[in-house]
Each structure stands twice: as C-alpha cells, then as structure tokens.
Specification:
This protein has 398 residues and is mainly α. Among the domains are: 51-144, Serine Threonine Protein Phosphatase 5, Tetratricopeptide repeat; 307-397, Tetratricopeptide repeat domain (Serine Threonine Protein Phosphatase 5, Tetratricopeptide repeat, Alpha Horseshoe), CATH 1.25.40.10. The protein contains 21 helices and no strands. Helix 13 (242-254) packs parallel to helix 15 (276-288) and helix 20 runs antiparallel to helix 21. The protein is globular and about 75 Å long. The two termini are 41 Å apart. Residues 1-18 have a biased composition (Low complexity).
Length: 398
C-alpha cells in the first residue's frame, strides 16, 4: 500500500490563490460574457456572432488598457491570460502571457507577486523548471522568508531534481521546521509565525506546503511517524484534502493499522468519489486484508473512472492471475497497459506469466525477451526470465 500511495505524492507546486492586492475591475471573462449576453435578451440568429465578437473586443480592450496603466496588477494579468487561452483560444497565449510578465518586471523588477506568479506560470505551463527556479531565487533575494517560494523550490528539488539534501533544507526554511518544540505540530504555533516579517500564505496553500513536506518524509526519508505528524497538521489546515488522507492511510497500512487505514480511505472516497489513486490504494488495502471481492469492486470503480489507469491494470491483473487464475482477465489488464506503453516491464512480465500458465512457450519466451530487452537491468524481469528458462530446461530434461 505504501508503494501504491507513492504515485500520489508529492504533487508539483501550484500557484497560490488569487493575489490579495490589485483587484481587477473585470470578473472572470467567461462569466462576464454570459451575464452580459443574458441581459441583452434573445438576439436574431444572424446577429449573435457579431454581438459576441463585439463583447469580446470590448472586454479585451478594457483589460489591455488596465494592464498598460497597471502592469503589475496580477489579477488582471492572469484574467487576461485565461481570456486569451479560454475565450479567444489564442495558440500563442503562453508567449503573450510571458510578454505581459516581462513588461510587469520591467516596470518593477522587485515586485514579489509578479516574480512569484511568473515562476509558477513557467513551471506549470512551460515545464521550465530551471527558469522557475531562477525566478524563485530572484524573489528570495528581496524576500528571503517567502514561504511559498521556498516551498516550491523545495518541491522542484524533491520531485524533479532528486536533490534531497537541498529539498530538506528549503522545506525546513519554509516551515521553520523545529519539531523538538512541544507545540510545533499545532495550528496556533504556525499562526504565531504570521508577522510583518513573514506573511504566511492562505490556509489551503500552507496545507499544500505541509503535504509536500510530509510526502518528502514519507517517500524519501522513510520517517513514517514524522510524516504522519506533518500530514495531520496539514489536515488541520485543509480537512478535505483527499491526497493527504490517502497518504495517511498508506502509512497506517504499512504500520498494520488496517482499521484506521480503512477509515481514512473511506473518508477520502466520500470526499472525492472520482479519485482513481485513492480507490486503487483502497483496493490494495483490501488485498492485504484478504478481502478480494472488495478489492475487485474498488478496482472496477477505478476502471470506470479511467479504463487505462496503469497501477490499477497492473495490480488488478496480478490479483486475477494469482488468486483467481483468471487468465483472460489478467491478459486483458496487461494488454490495456501495453496499448499505452508497449515497453512497460511489469505488463510484459505479467503477460508472459499468463502465456506460461497457458502453456504457450513461444509467446512466453517472446514476452520475457521483450521485457529484458527494454529493461536490461530490471532485476524483476531478469529473475522471472531466469525462472522461466530454468523451468523450461527441467521440462526438456524430463
């Protein structure tokens, strides 16, 4: 269950909530268009396109005028970016948004909100991690205690660069991590950090920082007791986080606290019935408890949400093969994975095992060879192939 949960954490850093300063005089463009259009009444069919285009032009001109006057109005800038992407469907909306950010920084190179939003933008929409890191570092030169900039840098080092020592240092700075303090794992302690020198982010954003640090302790440091403390504090800030509940449940499952893990997964699935990762991990817990019918029910829930969910196809396929000897079902799951990823080693090995049980030696040998060809150093694939060859030699000797 712990391995299954690892896919859920950590999530990459996201931009925090709407900027607290610089309110735009425009609502979200689509809402404004719909509202204004409804007030106009029913226009003749031939006039609707013209009316729509005039509304779009009016709003675009207004937003452009506001940005010319106030380049660092982040609410307006981000609204205009969404307007370009969602309303105008402009193929160059990313480049145009970058130009707006550049203009904003020319106006005020040290504007912290602009630097932070720009870093989040290039991370999320360009996957340019080095550029995002450079912008976060530039922000930290002016605000060395910026909680979210430190946390997002930590997440990049953790989940992208695998620089765990640097990630831990950045997380420690972001959260002022001092677990030896008797009340550190309380909301009141962290609220006391919210001073004129250090402005903490919103509750949801702070919950996200804690979640990522908990995932770091969970996955990298393997300090499960500390991870649980951090997850629990994160849950205080955001009680409806299915990702946090899911990871807490996976820790409890590793610690063999199955009833508590079951309650966590149940709570998470009630909050979000369409979270494929949680249902998959809940199914893994059911397997560990010997509740195979429940596991099959949960796996099938995932497949209704995402028919090609790879962890589910692999785990469900193995369960069908090993516990029910359902060769057709196991083969179907392996083929689903291979349709999307022809070199997926576990699917190739699973499919080879199905062929082996069926007595199709040629197919089994071909699939084992493909698995080891794709992954020459994969120990599991090599072991399965070696065992197959050993059994084949024994059959020949007999």
């Amino acid at each position: 269950a712990a391995a299954a949960a690892a896919a859920a954490a950590p999530k990459p850093p996201k931009a925090s909530g709407a900027p607290k300063d610089d309110k735009s005089r425009f609502a979200f463009p689509v809402e404004m268009l719909v509202e204004k259009s409804s007030k106009e009444g029913q226009a003749p069919a031939e006039d609707k396109t013209t009316q729509w285009e005039s509304l779009v032009t009016e709003i675009e001109r207004g937003m452009q005028a506001e940005l010319e006057e106030h380049p660092n109005n982040m609410t307006c800038l981000l609204d205009y970016s969404r307007f370009l992407s969602m309303v105008l469907e402009d193929e160059d909306w990313v480049q145009k948004t970058e130009a707006l950010f550049s203009a904003a920084l020319e106006h005020d190179p040290k504007h912290s909100e602009t630097l932070f939003r720009y870093a989040n933008f290039v991370y999320e929409f360009k996957s340019s991690y080095q550029e995002a890191s450079d912008l976060y570092h530039k922000l930290l030169q002016h605000e060395p205690c910026h909680c979210l900039a430190l946390a997002n840098l930590a997440s990049i080092q953790h989940s992208i660069n695998d620089n765990y020592a640097e990630a831990e240092s950045l997380y420690t700075q972001s959260l002022d991590f001092r677990p030896h303090l008797p009340n550190y794992f309380t909301v009141s302690h962290h609220s006391s950090r919210n001073t004129s020198r250090i402005a903490l982010p919103s509750r949801l954003d702070y919950a996200g920082v804690l979640y990522n640090f908990g995932a770091f302790q969970h996955e990298v440091k393997r300090n499960l007791s500390l991870a649980m403390q951090i997850y629990a504090l994160s849950l205080e800030y955001n009680p409806n986080s299915t990702a946090t509940l899911n990871n807490m449940a996976s820790v409890l499952a590793v610690q063999k606290e199955f009833e508590s893990a079951d309650a966590m997964y149940k709570r998470a699935t009630m909050l979000d019935p369409y979270d494929a990762v949680t249902w998959h991990n809940y199914a893994v817990l059911a397997i560990e408890r010997g509740r195979l019918d429940k596991a099959a029910e949960y796996f099938n829930r995932v497949l209704k949400i995402d028919p090609f969910h790879m962890p589910t196809c692999l785990t469900y396929g193995r369960m069908l093969l090993e516990t029910k000897c359902d060769l057709e079902g196991a083969e179907r799951m392996c083929k689903r994975v291979l349709r999307r990823n022809p070199g997926q080693v576990h699917a190739l090995v699973g499919y080879a095992q199905v062929a082996q049980v069926r007595g199709d030696a040629a197919m089994a040998e071909e699939l084992y060879s493909r698995a080891t060809d794709f992954h020459e150093r994969n120990v599991a694939a090599l072991i399965h192939k070696a065992l197959y060859l050993e059994l084949s030699l024994k059959d020949l000797a007999a």
